[in-house]
Amino acid sequence: MITATVTGTDPGSRGAEIGSRFGEGIRDAVDGYLEFFGIRGLPEDRVRGIAESCFATLEAWAPNLAAELAATAEAAGVPLWRLAALNARTEVLAVIPPDTEGECSTAVFAPPGDAAPETIQTWDWHAHLCRTGLVFSYAPDAPHGRERAVGRVTMFTELGVLGKIGVNDAGIGVHFNILHHESDRGVGGVPVHAIARRVLDEATSVDEAEAIIASAPASASTVLTVVARADRPHRAACFEISPERVSVVRPDADGWLIHTNNFVAESQLPGEATRDESTTYARLAHLAEQRAGMPRLPIEQRAAAMCGEPGALAPICFRPDPAEPLHEQWTTLLTVGLDTDAGALEYFPGSPVELAEQGARRA
Question: For residue 130, what pLDDT is reported?
């Protein structure tokens, strides 16, 4: 895992710095994903068409993020459409049948009161596509036509990807889980990773996050779980995004939100496209069983409680099967919690069991 502070304060300088500092890793990531898309049956011209259409939509919705991506591509020596394809990887993969597996399990405890929300998430993916993750902090751009309200963001992402999981110094945090919907079309949407990035860059409340998310035309599905340090009526929510709509899931009576890779909002269920054999439902049930023992614990104990008695054999812990081809091997690559008090990430590049045993890193 690379940790860094990016000093660029505008899209051009920030992108140039990211591209020059991490160029080799970005080129490797782009090459790996383009090969992966081909293995999944997507010809290059179709990938390029999706990538260019999504970049054009991004440019209209958040021109600063599009400019940062263009500067990153130039500095890294990568054709812009190829870096755009990396950032639109969810949209590209949305045009083929979903994997039998999913990625990511999230649990948030955010009851009313003075205590900050307690959060934890696993990120499960193919290890060969993310040989090195990036945890970095930066000063975001001011929202168009308004003064900047967020001074600093700390975020985990893949090299070359605009956004994923993070927290800002206004007390807003974002978790990220992929979903699948029958309306997914790939072409012409704002990349969902860019939606997460803009929430982190601009939002100072869950309601502001909702407005940003609702303003983005999407062509693939994802749930962004947003939490706020401040004790407000809307302190946390899962925003389930599909091309048809954005649906909001609020915490239950005890303050809990849990999410894996299937829709839970009733308005989205008719379009559910997650395959029945996915472990998403077993993981969701596991989180529901374990959550009672998770509150008011430091991140290491929270991670252990998230796994419960099964430990490393819990369904939320993915272990690669070496008998499978690389593109079908799933690994829990990251476990991360959001400290909205300090604007920091508590994380470990591995499973919750590994975080519990080896201790969290902090950035």
Answer: 94
Range of the domain at 193: 105-362
Residues comprising the chain, all counted: 363
Q: pLDDT category, 103, cuts 50, 70, 90? A: confident
Q: Strand 2-5 and strand 133-138: pairing?
A: parallel
As given in the structure block, the two tokens for residue 108 are 């948030």
| Residue 29 to residue 304: CA distance in whole angstroms | 31
Which of 36, 62, 93 is the C-terminal boundary of a domain? Answer: 93
Distance CA 280, CA 45 (A): 32
For residues 112 and 89, membership in a common domain is answered with no
pLDDT beyond 90 at 276: no
d(CA 70, CA 81): 9
Q: 3-state class of 96 per DSSP?
A: coil
d(CA 175, CA 238): 9
Residue 99 covered by a domain: no
Residues 109 and 81 in one domain: no
Q: Give CA–CA dist 103/318, Å, rounded.
A: 9
